[in-house]
Design a protein that fits this description.
By secondary structure, the chain is an all-alpha fold. Helix content is 80%, strand content 0%. The protein is elongated, with a radius of gyration of 24 Å.
Amino acid sequence: MSSLEQQQEKLNKLNEQIKAQKEKIDKKLGHDIIKKSGIDYSDLDKNELKLLSDKISQFLLKENTETAPTETASTETEKNDDMTISNSDSSDLNNHKEY
């Protein structure tokens, strides 16, 4: 098996692990919301699930927009961290070889 095929196999396995972890989180989050809200499973049909998910997402979006101004300061700091390299610095980087 070639190196590229081995890397592709590793990538596929990693993607499967990520998908499984996302599903685990989805189930846990849903379970916790239902449990903590005191919702009866027998009351949950497709329409009720849709309404609940809409309410929860609207609440979270509202919460996120209310806290957004404090996050902009960290975004500006991150932008400053990504400053461009001067020509002299970039030539030094180009001359450095790790391989």
